[in-house]
Task: structure prediction
Amino acid sequence: MKYCLLAVEGQHDQAAIGRILKEHSFKRFDGSYDDKFDLFWKGFVPTYPKKGGNLYARVAMPSIFTSQTHSVAIYVGEGSNLVSSIVKTLAK
Result:
């Protein structure tokens, strides 16, 4: 399996990329944390809410799409905070 992380600015970008992937026979992960969940993406599964965290903050779980050979996660990085958000997430 080949893995790819795409970082985008907002939800609209995430939806557009997801639609393109669907058109290329990728299947969207349904959100069930079961035996179909690829543990490669485990570090992106949020623990919500974190103590002292903002209850209204968007959960930073990427959309995940898979094909027979690829697994792609589309991470929303909160607009102008894209670089700092992705760096903070990858540093976990």
Summary: The mean pLDDT is 86. The longest strand covers residues 2-8. The chain has one domain: 2-90.
